[in-house]
Amino acid sequence: MNSSPESHRLRFGQFSEPNRIYLITANCFQRQPIFSDLQRGRAFVRALMHSSRSAETLSYVVMPDHVQWLMQIRKGAELSAIVQKVKSQTSKALKRQDRQLDRNWQRGFHDHALRKEEDLIAMARYVVANPLRAGLVKSLRDYPLWDAIWL
Q1: What's this model's pTM, rounded to 2 decimal places?
Q2: Average pLDDT over residues 42-50
Q3: Which residue range is the domain that position 103 belongs to?
Q4: pLDDT of 1-26, one tens digit each?
Q5: Would residue 49 count as lying in a domain?
Q6: 146 occurs within a structural domain
Q7: Residues pairing with 148 in the sheet
Q8: Separation of alpha carbons 26 and 7, rounded Å
Q9: How many domains does the chain have?
Q10: Which residue intervals define the domain Transposase IS200-like in the entry (predicted)?
Q11: Residue 5 domain-assigned (yes or no)
Q12: Residue 112's beta-bridge partner residues?
């Protein structure tokens, strides 16, 4: 994630569109491998599940140093608020697991609003295939921190 003095402007001029599908990428602070621990990764997954009133999770993957989340915003919800809440809930859970963890997330996040012509299932496959591309596993079956509604 951008750590420049202008990083606070990542969301400037953008808005949330109800029923729009977004690919969210959020990085761990200084790209530390916080989620290399399975229990820490599950804390993020639980936070995603609690966001179901605001967003429908279509697919996600929790990598050691970042997360990717393909989601559809529900009516009345706001993208920045959804992501902030998930990151906050994750941080609180991580703090309960390990008091030494201080800062977990880079500021901001990257979002990509999918266009109508983009293949949604191909994007979901791209998300969940991250551990394969990173060389963490040889088979996706061996990686515990991913899901997609189609797979």
Answers
A1: 0.86
A2: 96
A3: 15-119+130-137
A4: 444 444 444 444 456 788 899 999 99
A5: yes
A6: no
A7: 59
A8: 13
A9: 1
A10: 17-130
A11: no
A12: 23
